[in-house]
Design brief:
single chain; 52% helix
């Protein structure tokens, strides 16, 4: 019913419907080469679980039974990943690291704000996303 991307640094293999992301050099990642692997994955996790990305997923996938949404490779490949400044990527990574350690969910709102700013969303657009 919502985005629930997770970070596995232990090397466990999941069974079932699982999508894997790995770090490779690309136009997207070249700005973040200074981030260590853990920081990079925490940054990606924060963006992927943001309300803006969840809203987009719900708009392109259509609702199934019980307010569930279909996550497919073709849908995920269409996600518009925003250009986020390296400084903000480091902030997001830090917030996610704190969340993984059990910190308050208020950090999620701070991540959402950075993602909203990266997409240059208006207050009206943000309200629409927040109301879903």
């Amino acid at each position: 019913s919502n985005n629930s991307f997770a970070l596995d640094e232990s090397g466990k293999l999941c069974q079932g419907n699982t999508f894997f992301l790995t770090r490779k050099v690309s136009i997207f990642t070249s700005e973040y080469l200074d981030l260590n692997t853990h920081q990079y994955y925490c940054f990606a996790l924060g963006v992927l679980n943001s309300k803006a990305m969840e809203y987009y997923q719900k708009m392109i996938s259509g609702c199934l039974y019980s307010k569930k949404y279909r996550y497919t490779t073709s849908n995920l490949n269409r996600w518009p990943i925003p250009r986020i400044k390296k400084e903000d990527a480091i902030v997001i990574a830090g917030y996610v690291d704190e969340l993984l350690a059990g910190a308050s969910g208020k950090l999620e709102n701070a991540i959402d704000k950075i993602v909203y700013d990266a997409f240059d969303l208006s207050e009206e657009e943000i309200l629409k996303i927040e109301s879903l």
